Amino acid sequence: MAGVTVSLAQFGACEDKQNNLRRIQDFVQEAKEFGASMLFLPEYSMFYAKMNRRSLNIRAAESLDGPFVSALSQMARQYGLWITAGMYERSDGLPYNAVVVMDKDGTLRGVHRKQRLYDAFGYRESDECRAGESPFCPVDTPVGRLGLITCYELRFPALAAAQKQGGAEVLLVPAGWAAGANKVLHWRTLLCARAIENSMAVFGVDQYAHDCFIGYSAAFASDGSTLGALEDGDGLLTITI
After folding, report:
1. Among 70, 166, 173, 222, which residue's beta carbon has the most beta carbons within 10 A?
2. CATH code for position 118
3. pLDDT per residue over 30-49, tens digit each?
4. The domain containing residue 124 runs over which residues?
5. Residues 17, 62, 89, 114: which is the catalytic one?
6. What is the arithmetic mean of pLDDT over 91-118?
7. Which of 89, 129, 151, 169 is catalytic?
8. Residue 43 annotated among the catalytic residues of the structure
9. Annotation says 129 is catalytic
């Protein structure tokens, strides 16, 4: 049975959407050169503001037919590559923290609106984002039926288990995993645990920004063995499974 090659792009997004798209374009080209069928990008890939996040998130949010998703769709068609990426989706009032899944023809195949917001460790994501109302519906992809949870949702085993029960064969976890004491340990341990307890491969793709997000993107097989991993800094992890 032939393997499937996927790439995980680790970088730090900023407030300049066009700059973020240029970086995504570079990762798309590199992933294609490595023979990848899918490119996984982190949470907040469209836009990330360090300050005044409530007002800036509302201003930056876009609809699912807006410029960011349209640009991803064009890249997917041009390179024949599935692309997943985090964005702020416009809604009434606060935006959703969303992740979109595009197929190689540029068709939007799924959207996950983060349900469990990061109201923990002294932070309140619910002040700047609206919670999603329903779990992601797994979709068929080149790497198998893909389930999806976002960042802080990794800390809730039932959410990953629900994706498995919904038919997921692999699990994607895009994140902006906050820096702090033992956070790398938490991130890697929880990714591995979700893989073992659900008997499915797990892909964790994180933002990296010094003193903000840790990076350390990683992929684990269904038995918990490491398929590939990055440390800090920008980078592209490409693996064949």
Report:
1. 173
2. 3.60.110.10
3. 999 999 999 999 999 999 99
4. 5-240
5. 114
6. 98
7. 151
8. yes
9. no
